[in-house]
Structures are given as structure tokens and as C-alpha cells.
Amino acid sequence: MKLIVGLGNPGVRYERTRHNTGFMALNLITNDDNSQNWQNRFESLIKFGNIEQKKVIFLKPSTYMNLSGISVQKVLNFYKIRTENTIVFHDDIDLPLGAVKLKEGGGHAGHNGLRSISKEVGESYLRVRIGVGRPKEEVVSNYVLSDFSDSDITILNQSLLKCCLGIQFLVKNKNEDCRTIFSKN
């Protein structure tokens, strides 16, 4: 079984923000952005599914970004899933808008959601970094909590489509096959 996590903040206020890119990816992968179709458990919204004939759990933490690791740890422990079988989709300001890169393990690079997950479960999970660009003059926290413009959403949607294509390979543990979809880093 795989745990597929999308990072973001709960609530209508944050739906179109850069920090909710992980939630957006899961909504597209599951073809379901209606929270009423998700179960409210483990301080998160979860949904069960199958990808490539493998059971998966989709998770959107409800704890806000800075405490995402709490939900991840609860699900991993309850379902006895190894950290290595976790895939996390998240925004990344160090990548330009439109870029998607795969990263195995490593540090959090200042991302508070990753910091929380690493603190709770370790660093040996797979990350799908979705570029949102770096602010030119704006404070980073204000930037990631601001809405995408309509033109940015058009570019972001192309990144999210890459995530939909790549998840099939990632669930089958064929990370190298993702080179054609994601850039490796």
C-alpha cells in the first residue's frame, strides 16, 4: 500500500494559493475536489483508491501546513505503511512555475510542511516538487499564501497534468521511468 500526500491548507480561503499546490495535485489525480467525498479521519481528509492495481490512500492534512506531519504519522502508523512508501506532492519556490521535479529523501529546504513530516516520520519519503516560482520582492510567506493569477493557473495546470501521468510510475516503484515526465533532482 502507498500513501499519497498532497500538502496545503484547509478552507476556501486557501484553495487557489501557491501553498495548496499539493491539494490541487491530489484533486486532479483523484478527479475529486469535493471534500464531502473524502473521509475526515486522522486530522485529515483521506480517500482510498487504486492505481495500477495497487491500493493507495490519498491524504490531505487538515492540520495546516506547519503540522502536516501529524496526519502523515497517524496514517502511516494505523495502516502500517513504511515511510519509503509515501509520496508527497508540494509547492516549491525554488523551481520556476511549470517545473516538476522528483526528489528522494533529503532535507526540507525551508518548507514547513516537509519539515513537519520529516520531524514526525523521517526523511525517506518521495517528494514531487511542483514549481510555483520565487517572489521577487514579496515576503515568502505572503507569496505562498497568495492566490495564483489566472495566467499562472494555466501554466500550473500543465504541471498538475504531469503529476497525474507520473503517479502511475511512482506507485509501481518505477521512479526512473518518471524521467520522461519529471526532471530528476
Report on the architecture of this protein.
The chain has helices at residues 21-30, 68-79, 112-121, 140-144, 150-171, and strands at residues 2-6, 39-41, 44-51, 54-61, 86-92, 100-104, 126-131, 183-184. It is α/β, with parallel strands linked by helices. It has an eight-stranded mixed beta sheet with strand order 2-3-4-1-5-7-6-8, with helices on both faces. Helix 1 packs across helix 5 and helix 2 packs parallel to helix 3 (112-121). The longest helix is centred in the last third of the chain and has 22 residues, at 150-171. The chain starts with a strand and ends with a strand.
Tell me briefly what this model is.
By secondary structure, the chain is of the alpha/beta class. Helix content is 32%, strand content 24%. It has one domain (2-184): Rossmann fold.
User: Number of folding domains?
Assistant: 1
Q: What order do the helices and strands follow?
A: EHEEEHEEHEHHE
Give the overall shape, derived from the CA principal axes: globular
Taking the sheet with the most strands, its summary is: 8 strands, mixed
Overall pLDDT level: 87
Tell me the name of the CATH homologous superfamily: Peptidyl-tRNA hydrolase
Instruction: Kindly report the spatial arrangement of strands forming the biggest sheet.
Output: 2-3-4-1-5-7-6-8
